[in-house]
Amino acid sequence: MNKSDKSNKWIYGIMVFTIVFLVISIFFRLLDIGELPSQISGTLFEVVVTAIITVLLLNGQSASEENRDKNLLVFEKKQEVYHNFLENFKKIVMDSEITIATQKENQQETIDELKDLLFQLGYVQLHTSEENTQAIFKKVTEIIQVLNEYETEGIHKQRELPHFYSQLSSHLFEIVAILKADLYGKSASAIESKTVKALLESCDLFIDEQELDRYEVQNYFWDELQNQLLKLGYQFDKKDFSSDVTLYYARSKNRHRYYRLEFPIFTLKNGYTVKFAVELENEFYYGLIRQYENEENQNVQSCVDEIVGFSTSPWWFGWRKPDRNQLDFWKLDSPAFLYLQNPRKCERLMCQIAEEMDIYIKKFKELAMEREL
Fold first, then answer.
1. What is the pTM of this model?
2. Which of 207, 225, 256 is the last residue of a domain?
3. DSSP for 28-88?
4. Using one digit for the tens of pLDDT, what is the confidence trace for 25-59?
5. Fewer CB within 10 Å, N side or C side of the chain?
6. Any transmembrane segments, and where (predicted)?
7. Pairing of strands 260-267, 316-320
8. Domain count of the chain?
9. Phi, psi values for residue 244, rounded to 5°
10. Based on the domain organization, do 311 and 226 belong to the same domain?
11. Are 136 and 173 in contact (CB under 8 A)?
């Protein structure tokens, strides 16, 4: 039996039921035969009106559901496009450069990140307004400029690291704010630079926007070094190095240098006082100093020769540069200067420098006492 036959049976059934209903109603006087036509007409009118209203409601509901489904699909697609854009852009930022594909003989073709970025921006433009597209493109350009500028810093990269991350995060968060506002229909603002700065400070990436004051930083070095050595128990009168520092930077040729801090560390049985000194040329260095040029003292020299890393000279039984935290006060390009600029790290740096000196002083004293000098 096909569908047409089933539909005809339903129609015939309804017609038969209607005729039976009318006959019974007339026979039992449930309906007045004179009013029957008007009653049938009214009933049919009510049925038609009800059917029309039902159809309109159903159509409206269907249109609403269809529109809702469409908006949901658009929202999900926009999410996917925006996430893919950020993920692909992240790869460029992690590489610190945009790779442009080139293919030569016997070489594998590299991924062209520039083309990929352009297509990603095209996908973003497909789903957002022209205003948002222009704003995002501008921020992407600024981030690429930040990456390029940072790569040209060379040996100064460490110094520029906090500023680099501050700029990068500021531009990135502005892009995220634009995409977020477009997705959720609510205005969104980028994370403020002071919040980024606080975050970097908590990660020990302190941002000092002022230029390094070479006079101030060297004066601090000498003053705090003496404080740390005094804390370790060494005895000497503190010295003011401000005049030396001023003369040091007064001229580039034949400049004032080789000034030092020296203090006694051990007295031999014969009454000879061994002195330790910290001296500055371009970088600072330290060791056991002679009381006059080419002074001979076999007892002191034999102990110094046992300590690895020391070199002899006419004025030194043994001298060396620091194992770490080297500081070139003339060029001011040593990575450790970042710590001297950081109020939370500078004292810790000087403590480490003093403790390193203390290790070698104690090593010398142990050797001298073992040999009963």
1. 0.50
2. 207
3. TTSS-TTTHHHHHHHHHHHHHHHHHHHHHHHHHHHHHHHHHHHHHHHHHHHHHHHHHHHHH
4. 666 555 555 555 666 656 665 655 676 676 666 66
5. N
6. 12-31, 43-60
7. unpaired
8. 3
9. -60, -40
10. yes
11. no
